[in-house]
């Protein structure tokens, strides 16, 4: 999309004190306002809460936002939450981008100034990145839930077992007559002195 048509909303989360105690949230929010394509910025105590999600939805409706950046926790935790909020407001969910300013920032330092600088950089990168996102569509395709594991050493055996525990059909291929690899050749393993075979 032409950058002049991009309207991005940036939402910076406090996560109670998880982020706010180490990152100057107001400062990051203010900085985000200066970034190209940003229409609105907000800070909020718990962005993943219902009122937090409503903020995003309202802004999409009222300000015609076509991009959303949420600076909060790991995408592993709440990317589906914010994508869903965007979708419910009529925006393609892939126009939402998260900046991880908790696990990658506030939780791993005790230097407030550096944490704030890093949070600002992460937000700037997310704003830049989301400009170039395409409106993706989810598709369902038929698949066979099976896996091929090549090599029956310790790593191959462990992978095969985990896949099998997850309900997948596993084909474990080993070129030698027996599995176990180098591990099976050891007498005992340190420090438990278990028989490795
Ligand atoms: S969105 Fe993430 S960082 Fe924000 S309150 Fe929820 S869990 Fe905490």
Account of the 3D structure:
By secondary structure, this protein is α/β, with parallel strands linked by helices. It has two domains: 3-131, Rossmann fold (3-Layer(aba) Sandwich), CATH 3.40.50; 146-195, no CATH class. The protein has five helices and eight strands, in the order βαβαβαβαβαβββ. Strand 5, helix 5 and strand 6 form a beta-alpha-beta unit. The protein is elongated. The chain starts with 7 loop residues before the first strand and ends with a strand. Bound molecules: iron/sulfur cluster. Iron/sulfur cluster (SF4) binds next to helix 3.
Question: Which short descriptors sum up this protein?
Answer:
alpha/beta; four-stranded parallel sheet; 197 residues; single chain; binds iron/sulfur cluster
Query: Uncertain segments of ≥5 residues (pLDDT<50)?
Result: none
What CATH calls the topology of the largest domain is Rossmann fold
Hey, roughly how much beta strand do the residues contain? 15-25%
Order of helices and strands: EHEHEHEHEHEEE
The appropriate CATH architecture of the largest domain is 3-Layer(aba) Sandwich
Strand order of the largest sheet: 2-1-3-4
- Mind describing the biggest β-sheet? 4 strands, parallel
Overall helicity: 25-40%
Please, how many helices?
Answer: 5
* Shape label: elongated
Short description:
With 197 residues, the chain is an alpha/beta fold. Helix content is 35%, strand content 19%.
């Amino acid at each position: 999309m032409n950058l002049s048509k991009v309207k991005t909303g940036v939402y910076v989360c406090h996560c109670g004190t998880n982020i706010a105690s180490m990152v100057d949230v107001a400062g990051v929010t203010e900085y985000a306002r200066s970034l190209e394509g940003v229409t609105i910025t907000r800070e909020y105590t718990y962005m993943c809460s219902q009122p937090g999600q409503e903020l995003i939805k309202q802004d999409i409706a009222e300000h015609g936002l076509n991009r959303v950046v949420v600076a909060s926790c790991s995408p592993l935790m709440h990317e589906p939450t914010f994508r869903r909020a965007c979708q419910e407001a009529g925006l393609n969910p892939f126009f939402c981008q998260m900046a991880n300013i908790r696990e990658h920032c506030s939780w791993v330092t005790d230097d407030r100034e550096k944490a704030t600088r890093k949070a600002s950089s992460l937000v700037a990168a997310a704003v830049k990145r989301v400009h170039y996102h395409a409106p993706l569509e989810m598709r369902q395709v038929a698949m066979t839930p099976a896996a091929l594991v090549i090599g029956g050493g310790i790593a191959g055996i462990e992978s095969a077992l985990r896949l099998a525990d997850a309900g997948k059909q596993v084909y474990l291929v080993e070129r030698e007559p027996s599995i176990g690899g180098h591990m099976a050749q050891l007498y005992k393993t340190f420090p438990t002195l278990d028989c490795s075979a």
